Amino acid sequence: MKTPIKVGGYAAGLAAIFVAALGVGGVVGPDSRPAPEGHDTGHGSDSQGTGTADGAEEVPGGLQVAQDGYRLVPVTTSLNPGTTSEFTFRVTGPDGRPVTDYTPTHDKDLHLIVVRRDLSGFQHLHPQVAGDGTWTTPLAIGAAGQYRIFADFQPAARAEPLTLGVDVPAPGAYKPRPLPAPARTAVVDGYTVTLAGDLVPGTDSKLTLSVSKDGRPVTDLQPYLAAYGHLVALRDGDLAYLHVHPEGTPGDGRTAAGPDITFYARVPSAGAYRLFLDFQHAGTVRTAEFTAHAGDVATTAAPTSPQPTPSPSGGHGTGHTHN
After folding, report:
1. Is 13 within a domain?
2. Facing residues of 90 across strands?
3. Nearest to residue 48, comparing CAs of 186, 130, 150, 127?
4. pLDDT class for 50, splitting at 50, 70, 90?
5. What is the DSSP code string of 170-239?
6. Residues 145 and 191 in one domain
7. Which domain holds residue 120?
8. Domain end marker among 151, 170, 189
9. Within a domain: residue 106?
10. Do 159 and 207 belong together in one domain?
11. How far are the Cα atoms of 161, 217, 252, 320 from residue 106, in angstroms, in the given order?
């Protein structure tokens, strides 16, 4: 077992692509190899920060508040730690007006990801939109700090999806938590999730996450947003974003309902990444969290025993609901 977990290819729909951060990492060019059979391109590659067809570099997903004329506009400008309150925002289009027409991706018009800047308190939410293009969702923040809000969506007028991001503060004393050490296992609500595969910058690498409970493989995972699992990866430091979906589709006649969920991922640079796997079983969606390293990064030895996911108040826990 390798000490640092290297995250190699992370898929958006199984093959979304991370790009280098602004002023930090350089963009890695697209892999010339064909995608594996059944490899779902999901949210679209170029819009998520790989190279364009002519080889031009693009900014990684989530690092920009605006792109191609679209802008993420928070109406709620601060969050309230320790309470649940409404978070409201809009997405405006090239004409400056709120976007009201979307192409659903994985059963939803928009996916909202919320995480504190130290990569704790992760939440994956699905807001409701009003006729005037205003989105609203209940949002519970457990601790003060600066939060990154990601909107992952596809306007109907656009051929590719977008991920935009903006910071929103939660006032109070901020006590950042260190990034958890790399580990091959995570425990959440009695489920053990094991990660196999390494992240290698610039290449599509296979990641397999296996779910078990009470020592037995879970073979009856339930579809959640048209897949058996959803994976979000965030790069430590700048929070470059990648939303990945697994190989295969429930009901396609070849994709098993567990215990394995396979992704193909590409990260743009060496460094530490935080992985968040959403999966559904027995009617409940749970999130397993991992720290993984891509490339040659000096780290301490990774724990070999399952690491329980802390409670939301513990910082780097599931800390989120699914709406």
Report:
1. no
2. 73, 134
3. 150
4. very low
5. E-S-----PPPPP-SEEEETTEEEEEE--B-TTS-EEEEEEEEETTEE----B-SSSSS-EEEEEETTT-
6. no
7. 66-170
8. 170
9. yes
10. no
11. 12, 26, 15, 19
In contact, 20 and 60? CB cutoff 8 Å? yes
pLDDT digits (tens, 9 = 90+) for 222-252: 999 999 999 999 999 999 997 677 899 999 9
**Residues 124-178 pLDDT 10s:** 999 999 999 999 999 999 999 999 999 999 999 999 999 999 999 999 999 999 9
> Percentages helix, strand, coil for the chain, rounded to the nearest 5?
0, 40, 60
Of 311 and 28, the structure prediction assigns the larger pLDDT to 311
Q: Phi and psi at residue 128, in whole multiples of 5°?
A: -105, 140
Residues 79 and 119 both lie in one domain? yes
Length of the chain: 323
Domain shared by 255 and 308, yes or no: yes
Burial of 237 (0-12, 13-18, 19+ CB in 10 A): middle
Structure tokens at 123: 């939440």
Tell me whether residue 276 is in a domain. yes
- 35: three-class secondary structure by DSSP: coil
CA dihedral sign, ordered 38, 257, 204, 62 = positive
Claim to verify: residue 147 and residue 243 sit in the same structural domain: no
Task: Find, among 72, 12, 69, the residue nearest to 46 by Cα.
Answer: 12
Q: Provide the residue type at 121 as one letter.
A: G
In 3D space, the residue among 187, 210, 32, 12 whose CA is nearest the CA of residue 111 turns out to be: 12
Q: Peptide bond before 223: cis, by omega within 30 degrees of 0?
A: no
Burial class (CB in 10 A: 0-12, 13-18, 19+), 263: buried
Position 39 in a domain: no
CATH code of the domain covering residue 101: 2.60.40.1930
pTM to 2 decimals?
0.78
Same-domain status, 137 and 184: no
Domain count, the chain: 2
Same domain, 285 and 147: no
Two tokens, residue 91: 């997405």
Shared-domain flag, residues 94 and 131? yes
